[in-house]
Automatic annotation (TrEMBL):
<dbReference type="Pfam" id="PF13839">
    <property type="entry name" value="PC-Esterase"/>
</dbReference>
<feature type="domain" description="Trichome birefringence-like N-terminal">
    <location>
        <begin position="77"/>
        <end position="130"/>
    </location>
</feature>
<dbReference type="Pfam" id="PF14416">
    <property type="entry name" value="PMR5N"/>
</dbReference>
<keyword id="KW-1133">Transmembrane helix</keyword>
<feature type="transmembrane region" description="Helical">
    <location>
        <begin position="23"/>
        <end position="47"/>
    </location>
</feature>
<dbReference type="InterPro" id="IPR025846">
    <property type="entry name" value="TBL_N"/>
</dbReference>
<keyword id="KW-0735">Signal-anchor</keyword>
<dbReference type="GO" id="GO:0005794">
    <property type="term" value="C:Golgi apparatus"/>
</dbReference>
<protein>
    <submittedName>
        <fullName>Protein ALTERED XYLOGLUCAN 4-like</fullName>
    </submittedName>
</protein>
<feature type="domain" description="Trichome birefringence-like C-terminal">
    <location>
        <begin position="131"/>
        <end position="416"/>
    </location>
</feature>
<keyword id="KW-0472">Membrane</keyword>
<keyword id="KW-0812">Transmembrane</keyword>
<dbReference type="GO" id="GO:0016020">
    <property type="term" value="C:membrane"/>
</dbReference>
<dbReference type="InterPro" id="IPR026057">
    <property type="entry name" value="TBL_C"/>
</dbReference>
<dbReference type="InterPro" id="IPR029962">
    <property type="entry name" value="TBL"/>
</dbReference>
<dbReference type="GO" id="GO:0016413">
    <property type="term" value="F:O-acetyltransferase activity"/>
</dbReference>
<comment type="similarity">
    <text>Belongs to the PC-esterase family. TBL subfamily.</text>
</comment>
Amino acid sequence: MRFSNSHLAEKSHHKHRSQRERWVWSGPLLCSFLGISAIVSFFFFSLRSPNPSLLLRPNLPALQSIHDPTPPKEKQRCNLFKGHWIKQAGGAGIYTNWSCPTIPESKNCFKQGRKDMDFVNWRWKPDECEVPRFDSMAFLHLLRGKKLAFIGDSVARNQFESLLCFLSQVETPQDVYKDSEDRFRTWYFPKSDLTLLMLWTKFLVAGEERVVNGTGTGVFDLQFNEIDKSWTQHLPEIDYAILSNGHWFFRVLYLHEGNNIPNCIYCSNPNITSHNPDFALRMAFRAAFKYINECKNCGKLVTFVRTFSPAHFENGVWNTGGYCNRTGPSSAKVIDQESFDWKLRNIQIEETEKARLDGRGKGKRFEVIDVTMAMTMRADGHPGEFWGNKWMKGYNDCVHWCMPGPIDAWNELLMAVIRKEEAAMDS
């Protein structure tokens, strides 16, 4: 394997954290004499209330038609991923921190004490068109009988959890599977015959942590000629795969391919060539795409790549006092397309395009869900200090996203891209 030198400035790594989920129910039951219209009206009012304890469970039937309202000509010219945030009550969410019992404690920012609520009242607006509002009934109808898998780290799971909240407003899912570490999850919607899977993987490729005296060191050996079997074993049964990764690459890594001399990330060994994290990220996605395109039992798998979602630590990193306490989105003017975050995004898009070309004639399809621009502007959407971790007091979470919050826009974009793919396959 050839390794090209890159000399970008190093960026502090982010520490992954995973917490156990449990059902969260809070707030009084609605009085029986309230009608549906009063409930829905109170729901929209409560999203603007400064008191998060007032968030009550809405009765949400199918709020939108299953038909896509976007005119065909507008779809053709619209770049869904280039735009800005506009003020809109409730943002993209149709759920609250009370109406969705599956929100994990660490993402339930209102329950953990966050008082400002304005950050939920923004919606992503492409410059040239509109993103149709997420329609839970339409989504379940569109993916009837299908299996959709989120493949990646805890930020991938964050999107999985957001989608689960959207869909559970109109159909109650069954909790089918949870592994011992609560990393692999399966939920099933029986009426719609839709299965959602979360397939955990740190690097997409095989990675093993170095252990000294029985204790993990945080240093990993990555094998680029071996894909992480924990997710690839499920590929033949999946219709849609959403791949994403990035934050685990900001640590000391030793990079291997066969018997070649290893290279590394953030190491100080003078006999080993050192690279920046972008190099390892490119090689991992390239290896994963190669595996997918060569998978003979994967049928007409459609693979979406969700681009890098930046962290927003200020005045330090996660373990040096860094925090994220903003309360509103920033302008697109703050986006630096020469930044390291943007470089990771470009790598993912470049490798996806190569995989798309290679997949032609093999029945494989690849598309991008580019969230980097949108999320670069949302330093206000992280849990920050409001993530309820008892063992890491004083540390802020500026990597994951509050629910409800800006991350809900990812699933509006996901639905728009799936509609595009379904239309392409039908044509």
